[in-house]
């Protein structure tokens, strides 16, 4: 083999995408020392996304003082790629770990995310990728919008920065003073869930409890989101009530569409576009991808299938290395050539998680041994 491309997702709770790339590369090189290996670590928009993009595409990490979820100063960061695309993880300044033991989605804000976006355009970025995930907020992105100049007023004409608990008080929205550089930027939002903004499968009901909301608060948060969606339709003329992914990250998915004219896109599609995957796989003999567990959910556009579909266009075979695999037969029609499980013994995850690195190494070694036979 002359060229191999590695683009695995992380194995949640065990191995990062970068670690898996390293293990795969070591085993490829062990059996094919002269083989060119292209590594593309992947993240879904949550924690680690900036580092993955910088590793795959190059660039720099920029540190900035912004507001945390409680409007206190903190140091956050984002990435600037060589083509001046900014990559922002909302979790960097609105993430759940930042609130520790004071979780309260009624008062937390995404204001800092907007500040990161402003800093990006101030440094010449005309394209911004915002990764949703791991948030502690439920403000529908209103905080981020306020940071870039969108103005919100209550019924008495008083200006406010809406949070999950005050979205229902918004009576007027003005986009007049929104930063022009943000308006003209191309903004893509990485979003890997399809929950709507509100309702029983919306932001508050599905994700509110993990952010500290009890049953009563969940109902209030959901009611506020409904009112806010109605206000947005009246004031801005956009219906965001049933957008797939609108409920992501405390309904920030919906807010990104409403205030930033953003396109919600599966994380893997964003990654593939930015790293120029279609160009990178030209001349490749094989692609390795994978995830912790491959099942019917994987077929809905996650990393493995996203890679498979792109590779299929160029007839490059794709091998999946996964912790567990079930109901994957349809994957073979989506560009996947073969699926291998790393689990060598039928044991509970609580046991095998500690052997993930060892099992990955052994599985990759065996696959490369098989390929070596075929290439003789």
From TrEMBL:
<dbReference type="GO" id="GO:0016301">
    <property type="term" value="F:kinase activity"/>
</dbReference>
<protein>
    <submittedName>
        <fullName>Glycerate kinase</fullName>
    </submittedName>
</protein>
<keyword id="KW-0808">Transferase</keyword>
<keyword id="KW-0418">Kinase</keyword>
<dbReference type="InterPro" id="IPR004381">
    <property type="entry name" value="Glycerate_kinase"/>
</dbReference>
<dbReference type="Pfam" id="PF02595">
    <property type="entry name" value="Gly_kinase"/>
</dbReference>
<dbReference type="InterPro" id="IPR018193">
    <property type="entry name" value="Glyc_kinase_flavodox-like_fold"/>
</dbReference>
<comment type="similarity">
    <text>Belongs to the glycerate kinase type-1 family.</text>
</comment>
<dbReference type="InterPro" id="IPR036129">
    <property type="entry name" value="Glycerate_kinase_sf"/>
</dbReference>
<dbReference type="InterPro" id="IPR018197">
    <property type="entry name" value="Glycerate_kinase_RE-like"/>
</dbReference>
């Amino acid at each position: 083999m002359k060229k191999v491309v590695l683009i695995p997702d992380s194995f949640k709770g065990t191995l990062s995408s970068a670690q898996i790339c390293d293990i795969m590369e070591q085993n490829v090189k062990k059996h094919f020392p002269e083989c060119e290996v292209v590594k593309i670590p992947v993240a879904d928009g949550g924690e680690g996304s900036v580092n993955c993009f910088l590793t795959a595409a190059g660039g720099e990490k920029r540190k900035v003082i912004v507001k945390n979820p409680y409007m206190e100063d903190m140091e956050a960061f984002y990435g600037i790629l060589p083509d001046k695309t900014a990559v922002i993880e909302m979790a960097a300044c609105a993430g759940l770990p930042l609130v520790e033991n004071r979780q309260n989605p009624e008062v937390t804000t995404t204001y800092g995310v907007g500040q990161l976006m402003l800093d990006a355009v101030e440094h010449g970025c005309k394209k911004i990728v915002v990764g949703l995930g791991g948030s502690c907020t439920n403000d529908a992105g209103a905080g981020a919008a306020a940071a870039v100049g969108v103005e919100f007023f209550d019924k008495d004409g008083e200006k406010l920065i809406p949070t999950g608990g005050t979205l229902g008080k918004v009576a007027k929205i003005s986009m007049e003073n929104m930063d022009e550089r943000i308006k003209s930027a191309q903004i893509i939002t990485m979003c890997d869930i399809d929950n709507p903004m509100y309702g029983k499968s919306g932001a508050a009901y599905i994700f509110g409890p993990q952010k500290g909301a009890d049953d009563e608060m969940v109902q209030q948060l959901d009611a506020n989101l409904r009112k806010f969606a109605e206000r947005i339709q009246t004031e801005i003329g956009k219906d965001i009530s049933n957008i797939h992914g609108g409920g992501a990250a405390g309904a920030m998915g919906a807010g990104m569409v409403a205030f930033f004219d953003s396109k919600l896109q599966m994380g893997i599609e964003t990654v593939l576009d930015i790293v120029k995957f279609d160009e990178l796989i030209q001349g490749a003999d094989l692609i390795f991808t994978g995830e912790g567990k491959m099942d019917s959910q994987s077929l809905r556009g996650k990393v493995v299938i996203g890679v498979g579909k792109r590779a299929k266009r160029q007839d490059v075979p794709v091998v999946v290395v996964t912790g567990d695999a079930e109901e994957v037969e349809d994957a073979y029609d989506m560009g996947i050539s073969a699926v291998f499980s790393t689990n060598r013994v039928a044991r509970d995850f609580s046991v095998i998680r500690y052997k993930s690195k060892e099992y990955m190494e052994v599985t990759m070694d065996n696959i490369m041994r098989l390929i070596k036979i075929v290439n003789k």
